[in-house]
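The instructor's notes for this session suggest beginning with a concrete chain rather than abstract definitions. Hand out the sequence below and ask the class to guess, before any prediction is shown, which regions might be ordered.
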Amino acid sequence: MGDGHEVFELKDKRGRWLATFTKGAYTVSITGGQRTFTEPDVAGEVTHSVWVRTLPAPFDGTVDHEWVGYARDANQRKFPDVLAMAMQYVSDAPAIFDADLQIAGDASHGPLIGGKLEEGSDFNDYLGIAWKFREGSRDPDKGQFQCLDCSGFLRLVWGYRSKLPGDRYVSSIPLCYKPRKDRGAIPRRAFQICDSGPGVLVVDNAGTQVTDLSHIGVGDLVFFDADPHDGAAIDHVGMYLGLDKNDHHRFISSRKTADGPTMGDLGGKSILDGTGLYAKAFRAVRRI
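After discussion, reveal the predicted structure:
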């Protein structure tokens, strides 16, 4: 286990599950209409009724019932949550615009240079906009337009896009370029998010394969040591989607072999259990 996190389940008068809050985390799992997440040629589609949204601030132990009602209403109106948003960047996903800015659509992992896909495409590279961090403003790399590496992908979903409709609740999670001591924002790289990101560690990185999957929740960030050439460092991050139709624990991430975000199995099965590349490389879990 990680930080010894406290979990609070909200139920209705009949004892039916409504939402799960985790003390210290922005993430809330909340009931909604049943959905299926899939891609063409993916055998492991995921179907459930769990929606994942973010609070305006980490949960302090007191449930804001007005926020719950607002979030449930957003679910009923099918306003995208973080799971739906993540699927908006897979192969052949249609472009989505906010005014003149394309905020979603088929993303590459990075530009092809010398026959290899280049690393380093952050959320603002995909968007093609400058972004001001505490350390200063960073301009987009024009060559990485509409590209997202693994951490850039999740920074876009959780830090730039995650919100409820309208201006009533400002719930996008803060972003930073370098780790902050207060862990108050999502840093740039996968190992930094694992070590210093907001929220709580659900499963610590012990340097070995995580095999106890009982504590993982839909929307949790999952971390891997997938590259054998860089030592024992965390080098990849994805987001857990839930059990697929074959009862495998499936995640979505952006990676080179698929040239962008995918929940599919190109270049390694996108499942946390078993003996595949990512299952064996699975090291830690953080609930943002």
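Then share the key points. The chain has one domain: 7-287. The mean pLDDT is 95.
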